[in-house]
Design brief:
The chain is mainly alpha-helical. Helices cover 76% and strands 0% of the residues. The protein has helices at 3-20, 33-40, 44-50, 52-66, 71-119. The longest helix is centred in the C-terminal third of the chain and has 49 residues, at 71-119. It is rod-shaped, with a radius of gyration of 32 Å.
């Protein structure tokens, strides 16, 4: 481990503790990665790429200590809910279109069976 990463492994847990206790010093106090990175004085990609274990620890503690879901999980749940609603609407539309297709096929069969002369009278040409 480099000196920088060792320092980060000290600053990030301290920042987690400050955020979860409601005593932020360098951020808005939000319980997401961006305020955590600001609080720890690291770039947010550090938590996304290098110190993923600390990111997971942060989210686990947010769930356990605050009894609330992280913002990212709330967004994902909202997306899943929206997609389920969209899928239900599309399924209803497909069923309606299938019904309409059946009705049109039946109407076509009836008209084809009758033939062109039985459904209408032909006009006599005017001389």
């Amino acid at each position: 481990m480099t000196e920088q990463s060792t320092d980060e492994h000290v600053r990030i847990p301290a920042a987690i503790d400050r955020l979860l206790s409601g005593r932020p010093t360098a951020s808005n106090g939000g319980l997401t990665i961006v305020p955590l990175a600001a609080e720890a004085g690291v770039h947010r990609m550090t938590l996304q790429k290098r110190d993923v274990d600390l990111k997971h620890e942060f989210y686990e503690r947010v769930r356990a200590e605050t009894k609330q879901l992280p913002e990212s999980e709330k967004r994902l749940r909202k997306t899943v809910s929206d997609l389920k609603e969209s899928r239900a609407a599309q399924k209803a539309e497909i069923m309606a279109l299938r019904h309409q297709d059946t009705q049109l096929a039946l109407a076509n069969a009836v008209l084809t069976h009758r033939g062109p002369a039985s459904g209408r009278r032909r006009r006599q040409p005017v001389c």
